[in-house]
Write a structure and sequence with these properties.
The chain is mainly α. The chain is built from eleven helices and two strands; from the N terminus they run H-H-H-H-H-H-E-E-H-H-H-H-H. It has helices at about 1-5, 10-30, 30-35, 45-55, 65-70, 75-85, 120-130, 140-145, 160-170, 170-185, 195-205, and strands at about 100-105, 115-120.
Length: about 210
């Protein structure tokens, strides 16, 4: 019966459709961030950008507080702050490296509001970095990318919750590293064309980290 089902044309069509759906998701999901080489973009920053793309769109500006943005994208405050520092860091007299900040006119009492948008330079670089990646592990990459409220380094949680997370979860940097390795591996899960130097540029992680 199992053999008959597997060889059934309808079953084959459904299987192909399911595989196509996974490929489309990986294609629409941040393949650019999985292939974009920059040691400046840390795993936390790349994860925030990936969530920004999937939920909002990289070309869309945002008008909210950073804290509200982190919560919307499923990041802890510690993870979001670490990513935000990288994305809004000014180097010398240059403007923001990755995110541009526009101060909006204040309406009534309270703090000024700001509008955030990705720099044209980053968007152009990501467009050039959109290279084909392996779909052999599309399902695994999709699962890793969908997880929210990840275990954070230095996050204050109780002992039982901390023990549960350590036994069942991955830190955000480890999760991103796995996604990059899967995106560049063949069907058995073997990575043969990535040097440590290239891996550093794809993840933003130091050799020590």
């Amino acid at each position: 019966v199992l053999t008959h089902c597997v060889n059934n044309p309808i079953f084959i069509i459904h299987k192909l459709a399911f595989s196509a759906c996974k490929s489309v998701y990986i294609a629409s999901m941040n393949t650019a961030l999985l292939t974009y080489k920059s040691t400046l973009l840390t795993p936390e920053a790349r994860w925030l950008l990936m969530q920004w793309e999937s939920q909002i769109g990289l070309d869309q500006p945002l008008e909210c507080s950073p804290k509200g943005l982190f919560a919307r994208l499923g990041l802890t405050y510690a993870q979001g702050r670490r990513a935000w520092q990288v994305l809004t860091c000014k180097r010398g007299k240059q403007q923001e490296q990755f995110v541009e900040i526009e101060r909006l006119p204040r309406k009534g009492p309270g703090r000024y509001k700001s509008r955030y948008r990705l720099s044209a330079k980053l968007l152009k670089a990501l467009a050039k970095a959109s290279l084909p990646i392996s779909n052999c592990h599309a399902e695994e990459i999709t699962t890793l990318a969908k997880t929210s409220r990840l275990c954070g380094i230095g996050e204050k949680i109780d002992l039982r919750e901390g023990s549960r997370r350590r036994s069942t979860g991955l830190t955000l940097p480890n999760r991103w590293l796995l996604m990059v390795l899967l995106a560049h591996s063949d069907s058995p899960g073997t990575v043969t064309h990535l040097s440590v130097s290239a891996l550093r540029r794809l993840t933003g992680m130091s050799s020590f980290r």
